[in-house]
Design a protein that fits this description.
The complex is a heterodimer. By secondary structure, chain A is mainly alpha-helical. Helices cover about 65% and strands about 5% of the residues of chain A. A two-stranded antiparallel ribbon of chain A has the order 1-2. A two-stranded antiparallel sheet of chain A has the order 3-4. In chain A, helix 5 runs parallel beside helix 9, helix 6 packs antiparallel against helix 9 and helix 12 runs antiparallel to helix 15. The two termini of chain A are about 15 Å apart. The relative contact order of chain A is 0.12. The N terminus and C terminus of chain A are likely disordered. By secondary structure, chain B is mostly helical. Chain B folds into two domains: about 55 residues, no CATH class; about 220 residues, Orthogonal Bundle (MetI-like fold), CATH 1.10.3720. Chain B has 14 helices and no strands. In chain B, helix 6 crosses helix 8 and helix 8 crosses helix 10. The longest helix of chain B has about 30 residues. Chain B is globular and about 75 Å long. Chain B starts with 7 loop residues before the first helix and ends in a 5-residue tail after the last helix. The N terminus of chain B is likely disordered. Classes of the chains: A mainly alpha, B mainly alpha.
């Protein structure tokens, strides 16, 4: 509870004028309020929390539990406990979809780091160099970020990747049609699986949007770096790259953590752009497999869908915890000083 | 953006001086910017000419005719006016209640000492980071089991109603907003509460009349950001609103693709309709937009 130390000490000061203040913590929470106020405070925090827990955390826990059941979602009485059967199925009979989706999610994540995240950081660094018209450049790179990935998919499909008349087709097709989003053959095969041509095309469209996002976050971080740090390093005779690597990058740790978490979560969340393109074969990701089991003949397959959801949860939860503990540890230090 | 951060020492030295490094720098940034503009400019360009023209002459050609016909057809066939209205019905209440709810939680957690402060804030922060698809199976089943009267829902259930989509937006988005607002409120002087309390101001009064007015910059930034995020939502409405006609505009793309699939320029025009409100909000309120994003990434 160190976070609240600053608040605590203030309140302790104010408690001095209330000599009756009891020592134990629970009563101290109440003693901050007079009469009716404690109930109002409880309501102010209670209603939003109830909604958030009921619609976000309760379903999250339910997903994990439901992944051990077989259920079509129609009647509770038809639900049966099947242990690990759903997992055996998705890594057995449905392994082609599952492994391809896992691979696609992984590829997307690595690609986001190596491509748009790196480019976004580079652009932020360059645009921070007192460039003329820097705001215009920033606006250009940031504009795709305000678009939904579904719209991004539509724009790229109709303008860039159109089979006969797309911009990419006419630039790189050599006069022939290119089925950018339909070509499911592997660009880079990995065993029985691989990165398909159409998934690679989707990656490029996603990069168009992700780069500006990272650029803006990093730019805000760079503005906060003490200019004298940079000057000192350059006067020391460090090269620009060394200065960035040894001085600037480490001083931006909070932003770096945010960027890592955002990139990982975005890679696991990817859904809109693939769904809006009707999920071309070989471009399935975990979120699509989860949703595909929602409805179907004779109800959905809640158990299998939840098993995919649980895998998604396991993959992201470590990063979520890391981010949250990191953030609140930082705030603690802030409150202490 | 805080382009106003003063850096005169570089400015004066470099003005008018063009080294090879500077030329390469401008060259790289400009080239990348041009590439970045291609998809949007291309969409605008294609949307202003008949598809037959593009097919005949190729993408890179001067258009025979410049026409708004694609926009007229997309507007009518896509029922865009109704989709905008559907979006507004979701967006306005979701936005107001998200900010209202999260500001209350942020206020109590950041202004008063409480054993569960960190736990509460962590709960909201973590909740906002979960991929939506993790919760969709149980949420769908829950929504299917909540009956609503006919005037509230065509389907007679929470599932398939505007209400359900509003609720999940509030629940989900309040994670991020609580996180940002609590970071912001924590920085306001602690003495404000004490002074108010000694004056006999109730908790509600401290929240509404003292802290909220001081939090307006953060609220404005969040409102701009959340406008875009809720407007851009595709997933919730695609899954929880099965009637295509009742879907908000972004989710209706899922249907438009099938209807327009033969005419790329019509798709481009429809895309422009969908993108337009967020682009307008971004260009009009750029400062708020960016500060909203960066508020979330700085340490509190």
């Amino acid at each position: 509870m160190e976070l609240s130390r600053g608040v605590d000490s203030d309140i302790q000061d104010s408690l001095k004028s209330y000599p009756a203040a009891p020592a134990n913590k629970r009563s101290r929470w109440f003693s901050q309020f007079d009469g009716r106020d404690k109930w109002i405070a409880l309501l102010m925090i209670g209603i939003p929390t109830l909604l958030h827990v009921a619609l976000v955390w309760f379903p999250t826990v339910s997903s994990i539990l439901l992944s051990f059941t077989n259920w079509n979602g129609i009647r509770f009485s038809s639900m049966e406990w099947v242990g690990l059967k759903n997992y055996q199925q998705i890594f057995g009979a449905f392994q082609r979809n599952t492994y391809q989706a896992l691979l696609n999610n992984t590829v997307l994540m690595l690609f986001l780091f190596a491509g748009p995240t790196a480019l976004g950081i580079l652009l932020a660094y360059l645009l921070d160099k007192n460039i003329r018209g820097t705001r215009i450049y920033q606006a250009v790179f940031f504009t795709p970020v305000v678009l939904s990935l579904a719209v991004v998919g539509f724009i790229w499909k109709s303008v860039i990747y159109s089979t006969d008349n797309g911009l990419a087709t006419q630039l790189f097709g050599g006069g022939k049609s290119v089925d950018w989003l339909g070509n499911q053959s592997f660009l880079i095969p990995i065993g029985d699986y691989g990165i398909s041509h159409n998934f690679a095309a989707i990656l490029v469209a996603i990069a168009w949007r992700h780069t500006g996002y990272i650029m803006v976050l990093y730019l805000a971080g760079l503005k906060a770096v003490d200019p004298s740090l940079r000057e000192a390093a350059l006067l020391d005779g460090s090269s620009e790259w060394q200065t960035f690597k040894n001085v600037i990058f480490p001083s931006l740790k909070p932003v770096n953590v945010v960027i890592v978490v955002i990139t990982v979560i975005e890679a696991l969340r990817a859904f809109d752009i693939i769904y809006v393109l009707n999920t071309p074969r070989k471009t399935e990701v975990l979120s699509i497999l989860t949703t595909n089991n929602l409805l179907g003949e004779g109800g959905g397959n809640v158990g299998r869908g939840s098993a995919y959801a649980t895998i998604l949860f396991i993959l992201c939860f470590g990063f979520v915890i890391w981010y949250v503990t990191n953030h609140y540890r930082n705030t603690q230090e802030g409150a202490d000083s | 953006m805080s382009a106003a951060v003063p850096q005169p020492y570089v400015h004066n030295k470099k003005r008018g001086h063009f080294s090879l490094g500077r030329i390469l720098l401008y060259g790289f940034v400009t080239l990348t910017a041009i590439v970045w503009l291609v998809p949007l400019v291309g969409a605008l360009y294609a949307s202003l000419r008949p598809f037959a023209d593009t097919v005949q002459n190729g993408f890179f050609s001067r258009p025979d005719t410049v026409t708004l016909d694609n926009y007229r057809r997309a507007w009518d066939q896509g029922d865009i006016a109704r989709k905008y209205w559907n979006t507004a019905l979701i967006l306005v209440p979701a936005l107001i209640f998200t900010l209202f709810f999260s500001s209350m939680v942020a206020f109590v957690c950041s202004r008063f000492s409480w054993r569960f402060n960190i736990f509460m804030l962590s709960l909201f922060t973590a909740g906002n980071l979960l991929p939506q698809q993790i919760i969709i199976q149980p949420l769908f089943q829950m929504y299917n089991r909540v009956p609503l009267p006919d005037w509230m829902s065509n389907s007679g259930k929470l599932n398939g109603s505007t209400w359900g989509i509003i609720l999940i937006h509030i629940a989900f988005q309040s994670g991020f907003c609580t996180f940002v607002l609590s970071n912001y409120m924590k920085l306001l002087p602690k003495s404000l509460n004490e002074a108010a309390r000694i004056d006999g101001a109730s908790v509600w009064k401290q929240y509404w009349q003292i802290i909220m007015p001081l939090t307006l910059p953060a609220l404005a930034a969040l409102a701009t950001l959340e406008f875009t995020w809720i407007y851009n939502d595709f997933f919730w409405a695609v899954v929880l609103e099965q009637q295509g006609a009742d879907r908000p505009i972004t989710s209706s793309l899922a249907n438009l693709g099938g209807e327009f699939f033969t005419d790329d320029n019509l798709i481009a025009a429809a895309s422009v309709f969908v993108a337009l409100p967020t682009l307008v909000v971004y260009f009009a309120l750029q400062r708020y937009f960016i500060s909203g994003l960066t508020l979330g990434s700085e340490k509190g």
